[in-house]
Structure formats: C-alpha cells, structure tokens
Amino acid sequence: MVKNSIANNFNPEAYPDRQDYLDYLHRKYNDFQPEDRLKEFFNLFEEKDILLTTSFGSSSIVLLSMVSKIKPALPVYFIDTGYHFEETYEYKELIKDQLGLNLIEIHPEETKHQFTRKNKTWIANHDLCCMVNKVDPLEKIKRNHKVWISGLMAHQNANRSGLRIFEKSKGILKFHPLLDMTREDISLYKFIYQLPENRLIHKGYSSIGCIHCTKKGNGREGRWAGTDKTECGIHI
Predict the structure, then answer these.
(1) Which of 57, 83, 177, 234 is most buried by its number of CB atoms within 10 A?
(2) C-alpha dihedral over 129, 134, 135, 141, to 10 degrees?
(3) Which residues does the annotation place in the binding site for [4Fe-4S] cluster?
(4) How does the cofactor bind to this protein, according to its record (predicted)?
(5) Would residue 232 show up in a list of annotated catalytic residues for this protein?
(6) Cα–Cα distance between 129 and 115 in angstroms, integer?
(7) pLDDT (0 to 100) of residue 230
(8) Cα–Cα distance measured from residue 4 to residue 70, given in angstroms and rounded to the nearest whole number
(9) pLDDT tens digits, the chain, 236 residues: what are they?
(10) Contact between 219 and 90 (Cβ < 8 Å)
(11) What is the spatial distance between Cα 6 and Cα 183, in angstroms, rounded to a whole number?
C-alpha cells in the first residue's frame, strides 16, 4: 500500500497500472541524489511491501550501505544459487556483520537444483540453469511484495541503459535508486565510506555471478562470455 503522503493528483491504489503516475515518480526522483531517493522512497511505501535483493557482487555494497543507514531492519534477500564463488560467500558474511543486515537466504528447489548440478545444465542451457536456480526462487518471494528496490545502473549494459528510475515489470513496481551512478561514482562512494569489496574484484572480476558463468573481464563482459546472454532473467 502506498502511504497517504502521495501527491493529490494521483490515486495511490492505482499506481501499478497508471503510466502517468510512474512518469510523475520518475520526474520527481530524477532530481534527487541516490540516497535522497531512498529516503523519499521509504516515506512513500510501506516497509512490508518492499523487496530488497542482493547478489553480494562488485557493486552491491553501495545500495546495501545506503539502505542500512535509512532502514536498518529491512529484510535483505540473497538468492543462494549454490554456485557462488567462495569469495562471494565470505563477502556475504563480512557485509552482513559490518552493516548489521537483516539477511534472509533463499534457495532453489533441491531436486531441480541437483538436476542442474548432475547434468551441468549451465553448459548446454544457460537460461534453464538461471531459471531453476535464480529466477524461480525469486518469483516466489516477489509475490509477497509490491515494489522491488534494484541496484541496476544504466552504464552496466545496453539492456539497462534504457531503464527509468521507476518501472512496472511483471506485476511489480521496480525502483532503481542508483540508476544514473557511474563507475566512478561507485568507486568514490566505496572510498569515502571505506567499504570492503568482494576479493574477486582484485582478481580481475568486474561483474560477479555464478562460478560457472563468470570470467575475468571489464564491466559485464565476463558474464556468460562467448554467448548472446547478458542477463540471468530476473531483471527482464
């Protein structure tokens, strides 16, 4: 449910289906800095309706740091695909303790996960592996929320360059508070607040996903390298 502080020109209950309402939100929040966007956002939506997810990848710490200062008790969902790097699991524990995250781990259905493991599904069918281990587990959580905070940024790839701060996607409203942050902005934020990084960054991994489908490289060029795939499926 949207709080009553919303502008009088719009019907709060209609927000998922009203493009003019989304246009209004985009214009309003476009003038804010990322942290101010989050502050305004938490005044607008009920906490119980908000979904926040993280991969503990190369830039995850920035959004988690901002949210932890504003809504420290907000649940943070981590999709444990079973295929993360050991460095990512270590980083998860480090950040959980440092920021005091209310972390909730979700997992794929065990039988289906074991199928992908035994058949090495990531070799022949990347999309199916992502669907079983990442997309399906998240879909079950999304059903219980109305708005999803996402850390996507426009500079990351062509698919993300056309995003807006607020968008409706598959029945849920997505909020991209970091959308216009550049690589330099991310690095500066980490430096100012002395935030730790996933150790894989210093080994040449700019974007970090599952171990079988992530290689060293700049930007997201190491994700599903050698294929046409650019997204795991949860953001499309």
Answers:
(1) 177
(2) 150
(3) 129-130, 210, 213
(4) Binds 1 [4Fe-4S] cluster per subunit.
(5) yes
(6) 9
(7) 63
(8) 20
(9) 344 344 334 344 445 456 777 888 888 888 899 999 999 999 988 899 999 999 898 888 999 999 999 999 999 999 999 999 999 999 999 999 999 999 999 999 999 999 999 999 999 898 899 999 999 999 989 989 999 998 888 766 556 666 788 888 777 898 999 988 888 998 999 999 999 999 998 898 878 889 998 888 777 676 766 776 665 556 55
(10) no
(11) 33
User: Which residues, in sequence order, are CB contacts of 173 under 8 Å at separation 6+?
Assistant: 15, 16, 22, 146, 147, 148, 166, 167
Joined together, the tokens standing for residue 27 give 């214009």
Q: Letter for the amino acid at 206?
A: S
pTM assigned to the model: 0.84
User: Whole-angstrom Cα distance, residue 37 to residue 17?
Assistant: 22
Instruction: Give the three-class secondary structure for 156.
Output: coil
> Which single residue is written with the structure tokens 């894989």?
200
Residue 9: its pLDDT value, please?
41
Tokens of 205: 């991994």
Q: Which residue segments constitute the domains of the chain, with CATH numbers given?
A: 12-196 (3.40.50.620)
Question: What 3-state class would DSSP assign to 218?
Answer: coil
CA distances from residue 202 to 46, 132, 185, 208 in whole angstroms, order as listed: 38, 30, 18, 12
Look at residue 194 and give its three-state secondary structure. Answer: coil
Which residue bears the tokens 């989304």? 22
Count CA atoms closer than 13 A to 38's CA, side-chain side: 21
